[in-house]
Specification:
The chain is of the alpha/beta class and 214 residues long. It has a single domain, classed as 3-Layer(aba) Sandwich (Rossmann fold). The chain is 34% helix and 21% strand. It is built from seven helices and nine strands, in the order H-H-E-H-E-E-E-H-E-H-E-H-E-H-E-E. Strands 5-2-1-6-7-9-8 form a seven-stranded mixed beta sheet, sandwiched between helices. The structure holds magnesium ion. The site of magnesium ion has 4 residues, from loops.
Length: 214
């Protein structure tokens, strides 16, 4: 079973270090005891394998949002364009078939709820408290910031806010996720936990908890 999972991880396209994936799993296992989890940026389902497996163990669901048309840097001519994901008939990126295949192969179709739209559209009438929000969508500042504004308010006390692709050194990567992470920290609403690789982990304070110990 473990071997099968690792094989599937290896075969699934994505930009997630195994140690980061393992951390997603560990945090989601804790979080999904409290309530449902949500990720922004499904892509081909690599992070959903980790988050979804943890949710399944607790009988919870993972909402996984993606318009599946690729982020800014995944378009033709850009640095992260992958021709396998290009739908020639439509002339557009389409990662949804890859996500569906990943979820079917991992037996996660009863656990992961794909939402095929932008994160702002999905958030419009959202009212369900969340135990974990993983921001891993577009890397333009406005996109990442909107994802934070749309979803962080739905975190229940004690819930986890995770942000991927945090690079403190601007020569190593774009600064938008790092900026959002810094702003979240500055809000004093979260306790900062250890990072794993480029994965930032914050925990929403319960009412009355103060940030004095940071
Ligand atoms: Mg990422």
């Amino acid at each position: 079973m473990k071997h099968q999972f690792e094989k599937l991880i290896g075969e699934t396209k994505g930009f997630l270090d195994p140690a980061e994936g393992q951390r997603l799993y560990t945090v989601a296992l804790e979080a999904s005891r409290l309530g449902p989890c949500l990720e922004i940026g499904s892509y081909c389902g690599k992070s959903a394998l980790y988050l979804g497996s943890a949710c399944r163990q607790n009988g919870q669901v993972l909402y996984s949002i993606d318009h599946h048309r690729g982020s800014e840097e995944q378009q033709p001519g850009e640095a992260y364009f992958d021709p396998d994901l290009f739908d020639d008939r439509r002339g557009l990126i389409d990662t949804l078939p890859f996500l569906r295949r990943t979820l079917a192969q991992a037996d996660l179709e009863e656990t992961v709820v794909p939402l095929v739209c932008s994160s702002q559209v999905a958030a419009k009438s959202w009212a369900t408290p969340l135990a974990l929000v993983f921001i891993d969508g577009g890397h333009a500042f406005e996109t990442a910031w909107q994802d934070y504004l749309c979803w962080s308010g739905h975190l229940q006390p004690g819930g986890y806010l995770l942000i991927h692709d945090i690079f403190g050194d601007p020569t190593k990567g774009g600064q938008a996720p790092y900026d959002v992470y810094k702003r979240a920290q500055a809000s004093d609403l979260y306790e900062t936990l250890d990072m794993t690789g480029t994965l930032g982990v914050l925990r929403r304070r319960a009412d009355g908890e103060t940030g004095a110990a940071v």
